[in-house]
Amino acid sequence: MTPPERRDFIYRHLHEHRTIFINTLVKLMNVSHMTVRRDIRILEEEGKAISITGGVQLNDALRQELPWNEKALIHHRHKRAIGKYAASLVEDGQVVYLDAGTTTFEMAQILAERFNLTIITNDFSIIQYLMNKPQLNLFHTGGQVDKRNYSCVGKSAAMVLRTLNVDIAFISTSSWDLEHGISTPHEEKVLVKQALLEIARRKILISDSSKYGKYGMFRICPLSYLSDIVCDGQLPISIQQQLQELDMKLHVVNI
């Protein structure tokens, strides 16, 4: 591996495991302890990781998201279960928004077999998957292309959304918690998600528990702005109890 490839490898594993020991990285990448420590130091300087005794952990202040194809591999079983449950909340005849993301892509695969739905998305992977389903009405937002996430973002995409009426919107995120709400490290995503909060009758956050406790620089909204949250059962019980006190519904999917 080249140095950038090694650091991407470490960062990807941190998203999956949150903490990794240096000895583990030495074995996985077949490099020296010195090389691993040097890579960790650079990740620290970039604000992506924090050194701990004998290892490294993910910085809860999220600086950058993983590319779409890498995110799709992480916690896939949880995402599939969450996506299946979330799809069951969709009623026939509804106008449905699927936010760009790997969990919403799991939803799309199930909704692909439904009838009498209109699906709106800013995600190219979702629209491509649904393209050969003639029974569905499809609409893509267009806008500035986010190549890492195979989606459209920014002012243009948000302007299109504000011309529409959406019955139920499924919102994705890389970071959320009670203190910071939904947030993102990328400013251009804020306008799209905030537009959804304005136009959708029902607003549902779908996210696996590994994303809880992280936060990005740009705040989208408090969790109280949502109608529902769909998450897996690995979310700590204490957090589940606090979420249930908010004016919205928490759906816990047991894997």
Structure commentary:
The two termini are 35 Å apart. The chain is 37% helix and 25% strand. The chain has 10 helices and 15 strands. The longest helix is centred in the first third of the chain and has 15 residues, at 3-17. By secondary structure, the protein is an alpha/beta fold. The chain folds into 2 domains: 3-59, Arc Repressor Mutant, subunit A, CATH 1.10.10.10; 68-253, 3-Layer(aba) Sandwich (Rossmann fold), CATH 3.40.50.1360. Helix 1 packs across helix 3, helix 5 (76-87) crosses helix 6 and helix 6 runs parallel beside helix 7.
> Terminal Cα separation, in Å?
35 Å
Report low-confidence residues grouped into runs of 5 or more: none
Helix content: 25-40%
Looking at the structure, what is the overall shape?
globular
The CATH architecture classification of the largest domain is 3-Layer(aba) Sandwich
From the 3D structure, determine the CATH topology of the largest domain: Rossmann fold
Biggest beta-sheet profile? 7 strands, parallel
What is the count of β-strands?
15
Spatial arrangement of strands, main beta sheet: 6-5-4-9-12-14-15
Distinctive features:
255 residues; alpha/beta; Arc Repressor Mutant, subunit A; Rossmann fold; seven-stranded parallel beta sheet; 10 helices; 15 strands; transcription regulation
Q: Which helices and strands, and how do they pair?
A:
Blueprint: H1 3-17, E1 19-21, H2 22-29, H3 33-45, E2 49-52, E3 55-58, H4 68-71, H5 76-87, E4 95-98, H6 102-111, E5 118-121, H7 124-130, E6 137-140, E7 144-146, E8 151-153, H8 154-161, E9 166-171, E10 175-177, E11 181-184, H9 190-199, E12 200-206, E13 218-221, E14 228-232, H10 237-244, E15 249-253
Parallel strand pairs: 4-5, 4-9, 5-6, 9-12, 12-14, 14-15
Antiparallel strand pairs: 1-3, 2-3, 7-8, 10-11, 11-13
